UniProtKB/TrEMBL annotation:
Pfam families assigned to the protein according to its UniProt record, in alphabetical order: Ribonuclease
Protein name: Guanine-specific ribonuclease N1 and T1
GO molecular function, one term: RNA endonuclease activity
Taxonomic lineage of the native organism: Bacteria, Bacillati, Actinomycetota, Actinomycetes, Micrococcales
Region annotation (Disordered) ranges: 25-57
Gene3D superfamilies (UniProt xref): Microbial ribonucleases
Alphabetical keyword list: Hydrolase, Nuclease, Signal
Signal peptide as annotated in the record: 1-23
Organism: Metallococcus carri
Annotated InterPro entries: N1-like, Ribonuclease/ribotoxin
Length: 151
């Protein structure tokens, strides 16, 4: 009888432990960098924050609200909306999506625009990428991660 109780207790423990590892994560797989202080804008915000699961589009990308972007990214979007002129000759160039982080589309679907980084001597790592459908994406780590911009 003691063996039967021990076996039941063991089975109960295994069932409880098995249930602990099956929860669905609520954080998107590609959330980008968060929490780094943005010293390039005139706000005291800690930069764009990753989205919650309810903000994650079906493509799996995290999102960022327009108002949570650095000021320079919002300025770049204003230039895109106006059609330029752009400060960098590469702005508007086709973005190849070679990293395949953005949804797969035919070549020429995406175009990239530089987000100025004060103090940088080069174009820096920040970009806005626009799809032909007008969808905008933000990266602050040179295409490693992207967040869909919610406007």
């Amino acid at each position: 009888m003691a063996i039967g109780v021990a076996v039941l207790a063991l089975i109960l423990c295994l069932v409880l432990l098995a249930g602990c590892g099956t929860a669905t994560p609520t954080t998107p797989a590609r959330t980008g960098t968060t929490g780094a202080t943005d010293t390039t804008s005139d706000t005291t915000s800690t930069g764009p924050t990753a989205s919650t699961a309810s903000d994650t589009p079906s493509d799996g990308l995290a999102t960022v609200a327009f108002d949570d972007l650095p000021r320079e990214a919002r300025d770049t979007i204003a230039l895109i909306d106006r059609g330029g002129p752009y400060p960098y000759k590469q702005d508007g160039a086709v973005f190849g999506n070679f990293e395949q982080v953005l949804p797969k589309r035919p070549r020429g679907y995406y175009h990239e625009f530089t987000v100025r980084t004060p103090g940088e001597r080069t174009r820096g790592a920040r970009r806005i990428v626009q799809g032909k459908d007008g969808t905008l994406y933000y990266t602050d780590d040179h295409y490693t991660t992207f967040r869909r911009i919610l406007r």
